[in-house]
Amino acid sequence: MTGFDSGSSEKASGTAVSRLSRLAKFPVGVSLSYGNEAFSYNNNPAQQAAIKTHFSQLTAGNIMKMSYLHPARDTYNFTQADDFLKFAKDNGKTLHAHTLIWHSDYQVPAFMKNYQGDKAAWLAMLKTHVQTIATHFSGKVASWDVVNEAINDGGGYRNSIFYQKTGADYIEQAFINARAIDKKADLYYNDYNIEADTAKLQTLTNMLDGFKARSVPISGVGFQMHIFMDYPSVSTISAAFKRAVDRNLKVKISELDIPINNPFSAQYKAGDIKRELTPALALAQKKRYCEVVKAYMDTVPAKLRGGVTVWGVSDPSSWLIADLFKNAHADWPLLFDGGYQQKPALRGVADGLSGKACTNT
Predict the structure, then answer these.
(1) Which residues are catalytic?
(2) Number of domains making up the chain
(3) Domain limits at 32?
């Protein structure tokens, strides 16, 4: 329950956005669920209308991850991804592919978990994985998240199964192997909290400098930007973007969402939970979205803007509801409400793209 009719509010105030993606010369994207997943776009005309109207690039939330595309050692399954790609192409959208390598336990194929072999064998197996998938999609996708979330909160490399078997070598080898097949797609390293965690950002910076020294073919950094209304500060976000900009790498806001509640805050832990999206909160969220996008526009030069992608279409579909808040209450992190009506947050993104003042009115 929103607490107010966001769609009617937008229309009445004259702040409705006609076509968000036309306000940018770079991709304005959204992640989508597919097929039998909850909130799939497939049989949802209202969701499809929002997608077709406002976004120029699509990302599959799940179906291009490892276990979907490569479920068994000698088995690859491209059926769902190809259908998703066709939907993007038929509607004039580019596709940002997510992701070639990710440590998540439920996304690492069982055969990899059970794989026996030394470091060289592991690197060879991962090379086959990356290059087989890259070959299938070469020339069809605009960009890849080549490696996802390989750095720890607090700095250092994540002790994933890939790190245990190969050290950090699997990361740069994934980029080398992807580029050997696809000469044109942008290749991103993608991670969360790199805009706020100083030690994590430093590990990333060191990795990027090492890549440069060894001529590893990376195009840019994906800043997921699962952030909050009150954290991190805009200046902190801008400074993180600048680390990539200073290295002449593209910056992509790759998974943006801004929930009203921050479950890590003292207020939340004390039981101060917002249970209704009041008009005042919706306008505060609008301002926050605007400030983040404006920071992107102000910090990242045009040639290095890889795009801005929001992680989901409507509030009820957000991963935050089930995964972060554990269904404890509703939250409203995205640009459309449950009826696919525009929220003030959409206007906030539009204002940030247009260089307008960020206000809570």
Answers:
(1) 149, 255
(2) 1
(3) 6-354
